[in-house]
Amino acid sequence: MASELLLLDLNVSPFAARVRIALEEKGLEYESREEDLDNKSPLLLEMNPVYKQVPVLIHKWKPISESSIIVQYIDEVWNHKSPLLPSDPYERAHARFWVDYIDKKIYPCGNKLWNLPKCEAQESAKKELMESFKTLEAELGDKPYFGSNSFNAVDITLIPFYSFFHSFEKLGNLSMVKECPKLVEWGERCMHKESVSKSVSDPIAVYEAVLEIKRNLGL
Ligand SMILES: N[C@@H](CCC(=O)N[C@@H](CS)C(=O)NCC(=O)O)C(=O)O
């Protein structure tokens, strides 16, 4: 390992993107190793034996798994620069609540738009997804970033899914800018940050990947 930080990575993964953004925000050098999910490396299986998923951050040969936990670990270890979570315990708990909310709602509901055939369950997932975005938009309010004036862990958790907005629109036959205008503005604001623009996927590439998943599932 050239640096003390090695990321078991996947370019198209929104979860790995969170870790890349946090590392960039902190100005940390790291080695990225792209995984092939059809042929997972022995290192991935050894470092994340429970879930066998990317991302895994290996710090001084100690693995940390689960993207939200990794982002919080990065913030705690490199706390001298660009804080990602508030120092006040109550505000910290509040930010963690929203991180958890995003984890529970956005991907689990969103991927039903391409993993399920047209059915009631898909319709209800779409409804829950849009309700979740509206809840997040209300939490954002008129602030530039979630809960604060500076880019933070809640923004990092959600922003990789901004690249999925195009797919949600196409598959859900909806307009994100009409449904959640402030959230779209927030996404554009975040995209102006280099840490974000260089880490997240291209929306068209995401849509093509989603269409391929649908084709492979025969949907
Ligand atoms: N909850 C995990 C989700 C990670 C995840 O779903 N990773 C996917 C790639 S986007 C993966 O490794 N999939 C391979 C598998 O599940 O076997 C996190 O936040 O890190």
Automatic annotation (TrEMBL):
Keywords: Cytoplasm, Detoxification, Transferase. The keyword Ligase does not apply. Coiled coil: none annotated. Is involved in the conjugation of reduced glutathione to a wide number of exogenous and endogenous hydrophobic electrophiles. GO terms for cellular component: cytosol. Its EC number is 2.5.1.18. It is found in: Cytoplasm, Cytosol. This is Glutathione S-transferase. It is an enzyme of class 2 (transferase). GO terms for biological process: glutathione metabolic process; toxin catabolic process. Pfam families: GST_C_2, GST_N. Residues 3-82 form the GST N-terminal domain. It catalyses: RX + glutathione = an S-substituted glutathione + a halide anion + H(+). GO terms for molecular function: glutathione transferase activity. Belongs to the GST superfamily. Tau family. Residues 88-217 form the GST C-terminal domain. InterPro entries: Glutathione-S-Trfase_C-like, Glutathione-S-Trfase_C_sf, Glutathione_S-Trfase, Glutathione_S-Trfase_N, GST_C_Tau, Omega/Tau-like, Thioredoxin-like_sf. Its main location: cytoplasm.
